[in-house]
Design a protein that fits this description.
By secondary structure, this protein is an alpha/beta fold. The protein has helices at residues 37-54, 59-75, 77-88, 92-114, 149-163, 177-189, 203-212, 225-235, 260-272, 292-304, 323-338, 393-401, 416-425, 458-463; strands at residues 3-5, 8-10, 17-21, 28-33, 119-120, 128-136, 139-143, 166-170, 196-198, 218-222, 241-245, 250-254, 282-288, 342-345, 364-367, 384-390, 405-406, 408-412, 430-433, 448-449, 452-453, 466-474. Helix 9 links the parallel strand 12 and strand 13 (282-288). Helix 2 (59-75) crosses helix 6 (177-189) and helix 9 crosses helix 10 (292-304). This is Succinate-semialdehyde dehydrogenase [NADP(+)] GabD.
């Protein structure tokens, strides 16, 4: 598959290519161009030309086109989901669900576009009016990760396009194919050439060239904190705006009066989804001492029922996407063992027929974890949970906040007032009380501290692709 630029497929200028590997089998099943600065410039110039016309397209027409793209995603969900299943390794049904749910977000952004307004002050003098409106920023660069490549792209694309911006996207090296497929699908659904372009290559090559290019006005990035800091620093050279959704090390607090059945069900479901490969999963759990053993037994029982999906078969969890991501889990488990924690479930790589060629790690629970262990201090991005006993819920709150990340938090408490107080005290962008739902398409999503800058989803996402403009109007007053 080639890059999709200005409504057409094209190879890299230098002709270089890179492999796409199926994580379940280790098989190289496709290749994509290994683009460089020259390819970045071609795509950005195409987006800049398209911006000159797209920004003038009436909102109602942009909405019509975006809704057509959303429907095209649904119509092709099985096709794109099958490709995503192969390049990511996640079970097929979950991949198809990612496509359809992402289509819903496009519709939400389209509806928010219809609600955008300008304002006119009524405090002006005779013969004067002051209008505050908003203009689209321009060309946007989107750099997305492997774990939810379609969803996290739509966080950015849907908001940018409805605001009147154009985009050049660079998907992760592990999962480029689903994004490339969507570019063609959207073009066939009516999105004009150059509005959405996709380039492929390595981050330090083509990605850096896009960030440093003088034309784009914004970088939208989801990924690791170290990379996000480097992007933010580079973006200052041309004063680009940034939206950065970065790492997470999200904590759950379980109070002694919590509904343990609900708490353990929610944490098992959320902590191990996508084999733990997402930013706002439960990573660590603080449990009050009176219910610690009961909580641990219930959670272990539920997590033990989750199955791994070997190559060519079904199951709840797929392999980790590559060796680098896999090693996080292995290193954190080894660190916890060395420092005296108990591994009550999992803890070792899964091997055997159907597993040997992929990086499979089973659901793993580390009991008696302490704050000198990596599992309670560093992002895992794998199916490993650290469980820590505490004597008081507010001790748990202190420990939860004693972390450089601030993406999400979770509280389980029978006493609603206590639960709300803990929620208000958590230094995070989103917090759940007494259950864990999917993040809503209508409300802001993003982090505090080193978990990022800015917000995505709903009207908040659209507004981040708009620039305020004040117009001062003067006229002769009729007499």
């Amino acid at each position: 598959m080639d890059m999709f630029i200005d409504g057409a497929w094209r190879p890299a200028m230098a002709g270089a290519r890179q492999n796409v590997t199926a994580p379940a089998t280790g098989e190289v099943f496709d290749t994509v161009p290994a683009g460089d600065a020259a390819d970045a410039d071609i795509a950005i110039q195409a987006a800049a030309r398209a911006f000159e016309s797209w920004k003038h397209v009436p909102m109602v027409e942009r909405v019509r086109i975006q809704k057509a793209c959303a429907q095209a995603m649904r119509d092709n969900a099985e096709l794109v989901g099958t490709t995503l299943n192969k390049e990511l390794g996640r079970p097929l049904l979950a991949c198809v669900a990612e496509i359809t749910r992402s289509a819903d977000l496009l519709d939400v952004y389209a509806e928010e576009g219809l609600r955008l307004t300008a304002t006119m002050s009524i405090a002006s003098g005779p013969g004067e009016k002051t209008v505050v409106t908003r203009d689209p920023l321009g060309v946007v660069v989107a750099i997305t990760p492997f774990n939810y490549p379609v969803t996290l792209l739509m966080f950015k694309l849907g908001a940018a396009v409805i605001a009147g911006c154009t985009m050049v996207a660079k998907p992760a090296e592990d999962t480029p194919l689903s994004t490339l497929m969507l570019a063609e699908i959207f073009h066939k659904a009516g999105l004009p050439a150059g509005v959405f372009n996709v380039v492929t290559g390595r981050g330090r090559g083509i990605g850096a060239a896009m960030i440093e290019h003088p034309v784009p006005r914004k970088i939208a990035f989801t990924g690791g904190t170290a990379a996000g800091k480097a992007i933010a620093a580079a973006a200052t050279g041309t004063m680009k705006r940034v939206t950065l959704e970065l790492g997470g090390q999200s904590a759950a607090i379980v109070c002694a009066d919590a509904d343990l059945e609900k708490a353990t069900s929610a944490i098992a479901r959320h902590g191990f989804a996508n084999s733990g490969q997402f930013c706002y999963r439960v990573n660590r759990v603080y449990v009050e001492r009176p219910v610690y053993e009961d909580f641990l037994a219930r959670l272990t029982d539920k997590a033990a029922k989750l199955t791994l999906a070997p190559a060519g078969d079904d199951g709840d969890l797929g392999p980790l996407v590559n060796e680098k991501i896999y090693s996080n889990s292995e290193v954190q488990v080894a660190d916890a063992r060395e420092k005296g924690a108990k591994i009550v479930l999992g803890g070792d790589r899964k091997t055997g027929t159907g597993f040997d060629d992929g990086f499979y790690f089973p659901p793993t629970i580390i009991a008696d974890a302490t704050h000198d262990m990596l599992v309670l201090t560093e992002e895992t991005f794998g199916p490993v949970l650290g469980i820590c006993v505490v004597d008081d819920a507010f001790e748990a709150l202190r420990l939860a906040n004693d972390n450089r990340y601030g993406l999400a938090g979770f509280v389980f408490a029978g006493d609603l007032a206590k639960g709300l107080t803990l929620c208000e005290g958590m230094e995070v962008g989103s917090v759940w009380l007494n259950d864990i739902h999917r993040s809503s398409h209508y409300v802001p999503f993003g982090g505090m501290k080193e978990s990022g800058v800015g917000r995505e989803k709903g009207r908040y996402g659209v507004e981040s692709y708009l620039e305020y403009k004040t117009m001062y109007l003067s006229y002769e007053v009729a007499k």
